[in-house]
């Protein structure tokens, strides 16, 4: 049984414009009446928020490093149900993966048997585009480059030189996008900002959709898509944190994986949501409270004065509920958060931890985790870490023993006091 057809949008390297082109494709196809289901390769939270806005349909993560093959096939099949096309945005360069050389966009495309459309940044090159495209097309037999999109083309003469060169490879060129400084999404320290923070985002999206419609052969692009097989019975999702889970969700706590939430619901958990920024407390009957990642450092003052929120967390702890924070949520469970300007804000004080981002240092990578806390999950987990803040804490029981993607040992992560626990790790799936 086939549910839909799918394509992967990839590039030779980061910065080639694949995010803007994917957004434009989603919006342009949607406006033609095509139901497009969006997905993002890897563990990133921010690109899926943009993809969701462009498709008017929630995006999912497909992470070939952290997730098993059955999990990936199941999520892809479920996501494409009721859609005409599953459009998967790649991550970094097509063959770029983790430090152990796995988890690339190419790995995902090969596993799902989906063809790749390669977005090539043509700035400052002409005929040399042909060996670049040919090299990517012939590098790995199981990965099929079905077409190319040329980006940042300088002129009609430049386009003619490029398309004639690509024609010699035998790989279809679906179109050429001219240089346009308006088609740029601003960045923040963790990558792209959230869509709600981009002034006139709908205007930007309209421009991207119109550009794609003007310069890309959308009908031909759709013919390149391959069927998505209905996957085998999916593995059991990570168990819910409790029977009644209160989840923080607002601009400070925006990083949630849909597959985890859907898995908890499927196992019978009752989910409620609350906004710490609106000074809301978790539901008083919750037996678990989940503080996901996000940007609490941008909202230090609001969180510091959120007395109802803080009292609600303390009450949840006192009645024995599980309190779990990831990255930004871990920071808020601590005592003090120091923002980029050096201002300190009092957080919930449930863990004796001080976090600060006024001395930024990027920490990024996949993590293999062995938990020592009371999380109702398997002992071995896969996740990732991506932050610029740092934590100083007293001697506490760590939540995780950790290694990087290669298996090299890392310092223990996070902290546990009773049923209150957290770390900088974002957990994706069981190992």
UniProtKB/TrEMBL annotation:
<keyword id="KW-0436">Ligase</keyword>
<keyword id="KW-0547">Nucleotide-binding</keyword>
<keyword id="KW-0460">Magnesium</keyword>
<feature type="domain" description="CobQ/CobB/MinD/ParA nucleotide binding">
    <location>
        <begin position="7"/>
        <end position="189"/>
    </location>
</feature>
<dbReference type="InterPro" id="IPR027417">
    <property type="entry name" value="P-loop_NTPase"/>
</dbReference>
<keyword id="KW-0169">Cobalamin biosynthesis</keyword>
<comment type="pathway">
    <text>Cofactor biosynthesis; adenosylcobalamin biosynthesis; cob(II)yrinate a,c-diamide from precorrin-2 (aerobic route): step 9/10.</text>
</comment>
<keyword id="KW-0067">ATP-binding</keyword>
<feature type="active site" description="Nucleophile">
    <location>
        <position position="327"/>
    </location>
</feature>
<dbReference type="InterPro" id="IPR029062">
    <property type="entry name" value="Class_I_gatase-like"/>
</dbReference>
<dbReference type="Pfam" id="PF01656">
    <property type="entry name" value="CbiA"/>
</dbReference>
<dbReference type="Pfam" id="PF07685">
    <property type="entry name" value="GATase_3"/>
</dbReference>
<feature type="domain" description="CobB/CobQ-like glutamine amidotransferase">
    <location>
        <begin position="244"/>
        <end position="427"/>
    </location>
</feature>
<feature type="site" description="Increases nucleophilicity of active site Cys">
    <location>
        <position position="426"/>
    </location>
</feature>
<dbReference type="InterPro" id="IPR002586">
    <property type="entry name" value="CobQ/CobB/MinD/ParA_Nub-bd_dom"/>
</dbReference>
<comment type="function">
    <text>Catalyzes the ATP-dependent amidation of the two carboxylate groups at positions a and c of hydrogenobyrinate, using either L-glutamine or ammonia as the nitrogen source.</text>
</comment>
<dbReference type="InterPro" id="IPR011698">
    <property type="entry name" value="GATase_3"/>
</dbReference>
<comment type="similarity">
    <text>Belongs to the CobB/CobQ family. CobQ subfamily.</text>
</comment>
<dbReference type="InterPro" id="IPR004484">
    <property type="entry name" value="CbiA/CobB_synth"/>
</dbReference>
<comment type="similarity">
    <text>Belongs to the CobB/CbiA family.</text>
</comment>
<protein>
    <recommendedName>
        <fullName>Hydrogenobyrinate a,c-diamide synthase</fullName>
        <ecNumber>6.3.5.9</ecNumber>
    </recommendedName>
</protein>
<keyword id="KW-0315">Glutamine amidotransferase</keyword>
């Amino acid at each position: 049984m086939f549910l839909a057809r799918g394509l992967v949008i990839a590039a030779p390297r980061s910065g080639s414009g694949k995010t803007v082109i994917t957004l434009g494709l989603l919006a342009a196809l949607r406006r033609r009446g095509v139901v497009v289901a969006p997905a993002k390769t890897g563990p990133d939270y921010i690109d899926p928020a943009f993809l969701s806005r462009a498709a008017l349909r929630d995006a999912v993560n497909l992470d070939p490093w952290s997730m098993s093959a059955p999990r990936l096939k199941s999520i892809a099949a479920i996501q494409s149900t009721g859609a005409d096309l599953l459009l998967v945005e790649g991550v970094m360069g097509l063959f770029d993966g983790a430090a152990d050389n796995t988890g690339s966009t190419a790995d995902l495309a090969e596993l799902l048997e989906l063809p790749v459309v390669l977005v090539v940044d043509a700035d400052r090159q002409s005929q040399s585009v042909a060996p670049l495209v040919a090299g990517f097309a012939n590098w790995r037999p199981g990965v099929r480059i079905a077409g190319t999109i040329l980006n940042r083309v300088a002129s009609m003469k430049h386009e003619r030189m490029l398309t004639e060169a690509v024609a010699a490879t035998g790989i279809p060129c679906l179109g050429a996008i001219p240089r346009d400084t308006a088609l740029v999404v601003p960045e923040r320290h963790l990558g792209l900002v959230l869509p709600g923070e981009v002034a006139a985002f709908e205007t930007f999206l309209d421009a991207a959709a119109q550009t794609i419609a003007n310069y890309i052969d959308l009908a031909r692009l759709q013919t390149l898509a391959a069927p998505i097989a209905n996957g085998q019975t999916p593995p059991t999702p990570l168990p819910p944190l409790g029977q009644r889970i209160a989840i923080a969700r607002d601009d400070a706590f925006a990083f949630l994986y849909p597959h985890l939430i859907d898995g908890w619901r499927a196992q019978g958990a009752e989910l409620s949501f609350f906004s710490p920024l609106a000074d809301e407390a978790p539901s008083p009957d919750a037996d678990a409270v989940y503080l996901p990642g996000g940007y609490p450092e941008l909202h230090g003052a609001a969180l510091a004065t959120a007395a109802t929120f803080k009292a609600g967390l303390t009450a949840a702890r006192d009645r024995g509920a599980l309190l779990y924070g990831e990255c930004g949520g871990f920071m808020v469970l601590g005592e003090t958060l120091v923002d980029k300007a050096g201002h300190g804000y009092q957080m919930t004080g449930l863990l004796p931890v001080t976090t600060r981002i006024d001395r930024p240092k990027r920490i990024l990578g996949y993590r293999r985790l062995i938990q020592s806390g009371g999380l109702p999950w398997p002992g071995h987990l896969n996740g990732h870490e991506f932050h610029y803040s740092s934590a100083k804490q007293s001697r506490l029981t760590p939540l995780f023993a950790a290694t990087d993607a290669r298996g090299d040992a890392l310092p223990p992560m996070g902290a546990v006091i009773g049923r209150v626990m957290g770390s900088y790790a974002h957990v994706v799936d069981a190992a």
